[in-house]
UniProtKB/TrEMBL annotation:
This is Peptidase M12B domain-containing protein. It comes from Elysia chlorotica. One of its GO terms (biological process) is membrane protein ectodomain proteolysis. It comes from the Eukaryota. GO terms for molecular function: metalloendopeptidase activity. InterPro entries: ADAM_Metalloproteinase, MetalloPept_cat_dom_sf, Peptidase_M12B. Residues 1-26 are annotated as: Disordered. Residues 41-215 form the Peptidase M12B domain. GO terms for cellular component: plasma membrane. Residues 9-18 have a biased composition (Acidic residues).
Length: 215
């Protein structure tokens, strides 16, 4: 199961921050989104592999980890490019390009934890899906990208395979791809997908692609 979270549904969401920044954000929206995109139809992303993914699908090898992510994102990009998002506006051909690939080959040490004394790549037995998403978004460098996506090999409760913040229908609200604002010290242009299901079984390649596509 893949799911999405609206920022305003988050208990940590600060509506006052949204109102305070709404006018500034709307004025800069087009400029900011274009700056992080390649042309007008390709969005820059950062793809991140945590240690569980490195040791799982990556087999403990950086090149295998990188190849797995690149092949996954190429398939996702092909799906997106062929979607007609709005036939009246001829809105199609949108896709992604990996601008940065970050691979964690070991767990993050305590001295590199975030201000809440946690890190999405810390050595930890279990994460709740929403807590991992929130922790992943604490990396301030993600502001430079349209989207930050975490590849993990963890099992989550309830059949969850992926989770991401999604945009609201209301213009200027927080969350989703190219979101530039922060709530509770987090970026909200983030998502994750897992290559392992709740029962601990590995996903098939096409299953993993569909999970990432929805995330």
């Amino acid at each position: 199961m893949c799911s999405g979270v609206h920022a305003e549904d988050d208990p940590d969401y600060d509506p006052g921050l949204e109102e305070q920044e709404r006018e500034r954000e709307l004025a800069q929206e087009h400029k900011a989104r274009y700056r992080r995109a390649v042309g007008e139809n390709t969005c820059h992303i950062i793809a991140v592999a945590d240690t569980s993914f490195f040791n799982g699908p990556g087999g403990g090898f950086p090149h295998r980890t990188a190849n797995s992510i690149i092949q996954n994102m190429q398939s996702v990009n092909n799906i997106y490019r062929n979607v007609v998002w709005n036939s009246d506006l001829h809105l199609t051909g949108l896709g992604f390009q990996i601008k940065e690939l970050r691979i964690h080959d070991s767990h993050t040490s305590e001295e590199d934890f975030e201000s809440n004394n946690l890190h999405y790549n810390m050595e930890r037995e279990h994460w709740e899906d929403i807590e991992l998403l929130k922790q992943f978004g604490r990396d301030e460098s993600f502001d430079k990208f349209c989207l930050a996506h975490l590849f993990t090999h963890r099992s989550f409760d309830g059949g969850v395979l992926g989770l991401a913040y999604i945009a609201s229908a209301r213009r200027g609200t927080l969350g989703g791809i190219c979101s530039t604002r922060r709530s509770g010290g987090r970026t909200l242009n983030t998502g994750f997908s897992s290559s392992r299901n709740t029962k601990g079984n590995n996903l098939l390649t096409q299953e993993a692609v569909l999970v990432t596509t929805h995330g």
